[in-house]
Automatic annotation (TrEMBL):
NCBIfam families named among the record's database cross-references: asp_kinases
EC number: 2.7.2.4
Protein's UniProt name: Aspartokinase
Annotated catalysed reactions: L-aspartate + ATP = 4-phospho-L-aspartate + ADP
Organism encoding this protein: Flavobacterium enshiense DK69
Length: 417
């Protein structure tokens, strides 16, 4: 079986969905499982609904209507007949969402987040499944929440591999086209969970692992994995082949073309990962497989924006040592702060961090009781794999360098622009 993942960009409008159909016709769709994300920026739009709900904003209803309008337009563009069953099916999902919001009693933000944000994928796959049936491609709509079981860490759920493996290998139909949702799972009580933003690539890897798939292809709006993000760098080059190891490094440092959790399950079963363009499906793109010889011949650049550079120093000039550091890290873990770079001197300790869940304010107050705190907001973290002097000076040009750190293959530079 082959696993294909289509992200938000590939299904952002009716033309995108028709293009997915065209991709399938070119590359085949028998014995395929499609993992599909929410359409376009729907997840962000649902995040706004959740914010409005918790703030009791009068914009709540308007923010839901906006999402309805967007999907309805896609339906009208795809189906000539507005009596098609898809209109009722999609409408039912919106009714479920509205019912949930009106009846929910839980004050748990992360729980509510997952119940609401999951609608994006449920709706997108409903539309795709109906559309493919409509154009003559028979398929099975699979509710991923019956297959990927997780703990109840809402918004960042951990997969229960044993149960997931058993359920998937036993119940997913082979030799047909299956369509399922990326990003979602469910907990012991069957409440919806999510695997972390951009987590649909990871979903594809979970299915591949559990089904011993032949390969995974993630279809993107770029020709494959490039040596830098084309949104921030000019003259990028395509990496034709890279090793799992190199791909893990690139994803870990923030090359957002592949979600960092995707590689490990694939690598452990040596399932190849292809990153290809959904606009040119027959081009080879990038292939990621086993082999230490698959090192890129060019420097690779990764940039993470909106980072925080936090420096802590002791109030009484005592050293920041193992005991303090372990305490600080326990707090980072507790508040789900992602640390991307660490540097310490005798009495000070600096980290470049990302506050994905908006917890820094609370953490800062706790740290301030024990340490002197300095921080720079909105810094950028550049990582250069296989760096050269030329690559470094290109990154540093016109920027203030705050921290610089080098290891054998990797240079990291924190800048304020
Ligand atoms: P999806 O539609 O699957 O969610 P993403 O937007 O998450 O797709 O990923 C594709 C985007 O990743 C590209 O449009 C590009 O801007 C970005 N990107 C970041 N780093 C790289 C890289 N090294 N190579 C290719 N694309 C990259
Ligand atoms: N829809 C989710 C998100 O935007 C998951 C994904 O697209 O990978 O984060
Ligand atoms: Mg994405």
């Amino acid at each position: 079986m082959r696993i294909f993942k289509f992200g938000g960009a590939s299904v952002k409008d009716a033309a995108g969905i028709k293009n997915v159909h065209s991709v399938l016709q070119q590359v085949g769709y028998e014995d395929v499982l499609l993992v599909v994300s929410a359409m376009g920026k729907t997840t962000n739009a649902l995040e706004l609904v959740i914010k409005n709900y918790f703030e009791k904003s009068k914009e709540l209803n308007a923010s839901i209507q906006e999402i309805k309008k967007y999907h309805n337009q896609i339906l009208l563009d795809l189906f000539e007949d507005d009596k098609n069953a898809v209109f009722t099916a999609v409408n039912k999902h919106f009714l479920d969402l509205e019912y949930f919001l009106s009846s929910n009693k839980s004050p748990n933000y992360n729980f509510v987040y997952d119940q609401v944000v999951s609608m994006g994928e449920i709706i997108s796959t409903t539309i795709l499944s109906h559309y493919f049936n409509h154009v003559g491609i028979k398929n099975h709509w699979v509710d991923v929440r019956n297959f990927i079981k997780t703990d109840n860490t809402y918004r960042d759920a951990i997969v229960d591999w044993d149960t997931t493996q058993k359920t998937i290998s036993k119940n997913i139909k082979r030799k047909v086209l299956n369509i399922t949702q990326g990003f979602l799972g469910s907990d012991e009580n069957n409440f919806t969970t999510t695997l972390g933003r951009e987590g649909s690539d990871y979903t594809a890897a979970i299915f591949a692992y559990c089904l011993n798939a032949e390969s995974v292809t993630i279809w993107k709006d770029v020709p494959g994995v490039l040596n830098a993000d084309p949104r921030y760098f000019e003259n990028t080059t395509l990496l034709n082949q890279i090793s799992y190891r190199e791909a893990i490094e690139l994803a870990f440092y923030g090359a957002s073309v592949i979600h960092p959790k995707t590689l490990q399950p694939l690598q452990s079963k040596e399932i190849p990962l292809y990153v290809k363009s959904f606009l040119n499906p027959l081009l080879p793109g990038t292939s990621i497989a086993k082999g230490s010889h698959l090192e890129p011949e060019t420097s690779c650049f990764i940039v993470k924006k909106n980072q925080l550079l936090l420096s802590l120093s002791s109030i009484d000039f005592s050293f920041i040592m193992e005991e303090n550091i372990s305490e600080i890290f326990a707090l980072f873990h507790k508040y789900k702060i992602k640390v991307s770079l660490i540097q310490n001197t005798a009495i000070s300790f600096s980290v470049c961090i990302e506050d994905k869940f908006g917890n820094f304010g609370e953490l800062k107050n706790i740290l301030a009781k024990k340490f002197k705190i300095f921080y720079n907001e909105n810094v950028s973290l550049y990582t250069i794999r296989h760096f050269t002097d030329k690559a470094i000076s290109m990154v540093e040009k016109d920027k203030t360098v705050l921290v610089k750190q080098m290891s054998r293959e990797t240079m990291q530079i924190v800048t304020q622009e």
